Amino acid sequence: MALRLTALSIAFVLAVAAPALAQEEEVYQQIEDIQGDADGFFELFSALQDAAMFGDPTTIAQYANYPLLVNANGESYDVLEEQDLLDNFDTLVSPETLQALLEQDVADLIVTSEGVGIGNGAMWLSNFCVDDACEETYWGIFSINN
Question: How many structural domains compose the chain?
Answer without folding.
Answer: 1
